[in-house]
C-alpha cells in the first residue's frame, strides 16, 4: 500500500471542531479530504478527539450517524450516545472498569450516554447500575 501525504493539521482541527455541531461543514470537509474520517486532533495535553468523538459528547446523532456511514470507526463513547446497548455491554463485559472511562475533554462515559437522550436511556441505566 502506497503511503499518502499527511493531512494538514489545520484541516484536521477544522473537521473535528465542526463535528461538534455543523453537519454541512463536516460533509464539505470530508468531500474535500476523505482521509479525515478517522483523523484525531490533540486539543492539548493529550486530549485527543475524532469527529465521531466530538459528535458523541454533544449528542449530535445526525453527525455521528453520517460519520459512521462514511466509515468512521465506532467507539465506546459514540455507542453510548447512540444507545447501542449491546456494544456498550460487550465493552463492559470485556473490561468492567470502562464504566468509569472518560472520553475527549475528560467527559465521562455516562455523560455521553445522557447526551443521546431518550434513545440512549437504556445505556444510561446500565452505566448507573
UniProtKB/TrEMBL annotation:
ANK repeats lie at residues 47-79. Keywords: ANK repeat. InterPro entries: Ankyrin_rpt, Ankyrin_rpt-contain_sf. It comes from the Bacteria. SUPFAM superfamilies: Ankyrin repeat. The keyword Lipid metabolism does not apply. This is Ankyrin repeat domain-containing protein. It comes from Paenibacillus mendelii. The lineage of its organism: Bacteria, Bacillati, Bacillota, Bacilli, Bacillales.
Amino acid at each position: 500500500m502506497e503511503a499518502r501525504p499527511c493531512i494538514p493539521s489545520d484541516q484536521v482541527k477544522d473537521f473535528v471542531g465542526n463535528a461538534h455541531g455543523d453537519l454541512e461543514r463536516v460533509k464539505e470537509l470530508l468531500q474535500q479530504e476523505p482521509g479525515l474520517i478517522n483523523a484525531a486532533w490533540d486539543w492539548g495535553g493529550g486530549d485527543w478527539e475524532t469527529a465521531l468523538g466530538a459528535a458523541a459528547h454533544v449528542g449530535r446523532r445526525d453527525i455521528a450517524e453520517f460519520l459512521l456511514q462514511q466509515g468512521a470507526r465506532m467507539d465506546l463513547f459514540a455507542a453510548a450516545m447512540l444507545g447501542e446497548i449491546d456494544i456498550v455491554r460487550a465493552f463492559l463485559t470485556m473490561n468492567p472498569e470502562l464504566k468509569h472511562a472518560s472520553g475527549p475533554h475528560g467527559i465521562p462515559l455516562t455523560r455521553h450516554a445522557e447526551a443521546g437522550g431518550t434513545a440512549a436511556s437504556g445505556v444510561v441505566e446500565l452505566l448507573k447500575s
